[in-house]
Amino acid sequence: MTSLPLDQRLAAVRTAFTEQFGHEPEGVWRAPGRVNLIGEHTDYNDGFVLPFALEQSALVAASSRPDGVVRISSRDLGETHELAPHQVVPGSGGWQAYLAGTVWALRDSGAAVGGLDIMLSSDVPVGAGLSSSAAIECAVMAAALDLFALDVAPLERARLCQRAENVYVGAPTGLLDQAASTLCADGHALFLDCRSFASRQVPLPLAEAGLEILVLDTHTPHTHVDGEYAARRAACEQAAHILRVPALRDVDDLDGALARLDDDLLRRRVRHVVSENARVLETVDLATSGRLEAIAPLLDASHASMRDDFEITVATVDLAVETARGAGALGARMTGGGFGGCIIALCRAGQGDAVGREVARAFSEHDFTAPSWFVAHPSDGAGRVG
Ligand code: GLA
Question: Is 325 touching ligand 1 by the criterion CB < 6 Å?
Answer without folding.
Answer: no
